[in-house]
């Protein structure tokens, strides 16, 4: 089933601190399908999609939107991380233009980006150069 989180960043991201993330649970993983990042100010920044290898300082839990209300999300979305995370591999990166509303959407097609089963496994949006902005985001995944 498909699920999503969306919102406005509550922290300015850094190279280790995510503006938003999704983590699997002990029994269920996820496949990331799309990620959208949109600028809210007129200053460019770099948005980077990364794997996390632990759930340190994940911030406030978000209410996931369930495309099928009969099948609620098991994985958990989190707003702005409160501490630096263990960033694994960078999956994709793009410069978001210096205009309100400038943005980018990554689409990962049929195979998606796998978040393996396990509470330490996550996926998030950081600012790859360390100079972040408050941005809007949407992450969609299947379980």
How would you describe this structure to a colleague?
The protein is mostly beta strands. The chain is built from no helices and 11 strands. Strands 1, 3, 5, 8, 9 and 11 form a 6-stranded antiparallel β-sheet that branches. Strands 6-2-10-4-7 form a 5-stranded antiparallel β-sheet, with no helix packed on it. It is globular and about 40 Å long.
Any chance you could write out the topology, listing elements then pairs?
Layout: E1 2-8, E2 20-23, E3 30-39, E4 45-52, E5 65-66, E6 76-79, E7 87-96, E8 103-107, E9 113-115, E10 122-127, E11 135-142
Antiparallel strand pairs: 1-5, 1-11, 2-6, 2-10, 3-8, 3-9, 3-11, 4-7, 4-10
Summarize the amount of helix as a percent range: under 10%
Instruction: Name the poorly predicted regions.
Output: none
In the CATH scheme, the class would be Mainly Beta
Whole-number mean pLDDT: 95
Q: How many discrete structural domains?
A: 1
**Helix count from the secondary structure assignment:** 0
User: Quick one: how many beta strands?
Assistant: 11
| Structural class label | mainly beta
CATH architecture descriptor name: Sandwich
- Proportion of residues in extended strands: over 45%
Q: Shape from CA axes?
A: globular
């Amino acid at each position: 089933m498909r699920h999503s989180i969306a919102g406005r960043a509550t922290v300015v991201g850094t190279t280790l601190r995510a503006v938003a993330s999704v983590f699997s649970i002990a029994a269920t993983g996820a496949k990331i399908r799309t990620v959208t990042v949109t600028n809210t100010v007129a200053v460019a920044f770099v948005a980077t999609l990364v794997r996390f290898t632990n759930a340190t300082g994940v911030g406030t839990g978000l209410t996931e939107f369930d495309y099928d209300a009969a099948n609620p999300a098991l994985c958990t979305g989190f707003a702005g991380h409160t501490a630096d995370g263990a960033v694994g591999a960078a999956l994709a990166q793009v410069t978001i233009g210096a205009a309100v509303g400038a943005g980018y959407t990554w689409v990962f097609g049929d195979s998606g980006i796998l978040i393996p089963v396990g509470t330490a496994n996550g996926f998030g949006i950081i600012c790859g150069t360390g100079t972040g902005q408050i941005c809007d985001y949407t992450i969609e995944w299947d379980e």
